[in-house]
Specification:
mainly alpha; 67 residues
Length: 67
Amino acid sequence: MKEKTLVSTLTLLGSLASYYYSKTHEKDVVPYVMIGGFIGAWVGELISTLIDSEKNKRDNENKDKEL
């Protein structure tokens, strides 16, 4: 999965989840959506970084086996 797609999807899900939470608890929507989107983007970036590091690790192991 591409990094941009992953981050965008988690940002959207975080925003929607926080929107739902704020609406059901009758709170102001805007701060919750902003915080939820930020947290979703942060989690997406962490996951994409982990995926990239695992790919790099596997690539390095394969190069070592070839030598």
